[in-house]
Design goal:
The structure is a homodimer of 106-residue chains. With 106 residues, chain A is an alpha+beta fold. Chain A is built from 6 helices and 3 strands. Chain A binds a DNA duplex (30 and 30 nucleotides) through helix 4.
Chain lengths: 106, 106
DNA sequence: GTTTTATTTGAGTATTTTGAAAAATACGAG
DNA sequence: CTCGTATTTTTCAAAATACTCAAATAAAAC
């Protein structure tokens, strides 16, 4: 659980990766096409996609020699909910939220 | 803006720092009291608080020789709005939040 | 088969982050 | 002023990150 939030937030903490997610919002894309607008090498983008995939934010499916990358927006839900809890503390069950946060540490 | 999101997400990508935020949800606290429940050294916690403060998630006010740490939940707004671009979350979705808590607590 | 296209992997390097430990600073109390 | 408490800073080492380039793999195309 802690790992899930760790890897999600860490994946989002990089502008290249956020830009990739924004691109994938439009459409599924091949790795080469994802890399095209960036200055960076293809290998570097491939690694960024690996980080996003490890966090569950992107899934990759190989068809032929092309690997298609697909946004998995549901993976943002845990992190988004975690954050929104802070903005809404007066409106929710504080004890349950803190129990959750405490448990997350183990 | 990119910098702001970078530092916010990076700050959240650490379970110790998320636990600190959760503690500050209860009340403002002195650095020493923040550090108390952790195994880590006080200096390490002071640095974590520095990361959170640099990201704007916490503010620190020195009164006498004690520095009080205060949660700044509004600082999460930028990141929260960014996530909303992905459509996985309504602006306010307490039902999802509670469902998430229920699911993660068992 | 050989070549081309798509993508990953590994080696090497530079930078950043994390934490401990000890020294330094800041300030109230006696 | 001196002492003890609160907190930060510095120094140092280990681990993680983010690249590049070159080599390796995989599968289509010729």
């Amino acid at each position: 659980m802690a790992d899930q939030l760790d890897s999600t937030f860490a994946a989002l903490a990089d502008p290249t990766r956020r830009a990739i997610l924004a691109m994938l919002l439009e459409d599924d894309m091949a790795v080469t096409d994802v890399a095209e607008p960036f200055e960076m090498s293809l290998a570097a983008i491939s690694k960024h996609l690996g980080v996003l995939t490890a966090a569950g934010l992107v899934s990759q499916e190989k068809r032929g020699r092309v690997k298609w990358c697909k946004l998995e927006p549901d993976a943002l839900r845990g992190a988004s909910v975690w954050m929104q809890g802070f903005g809404q503390m007066d409106a929710i069950d504080l004890d349950a939220f803190e129990a959750f946060l405490a448990k997350e540490l183990d």
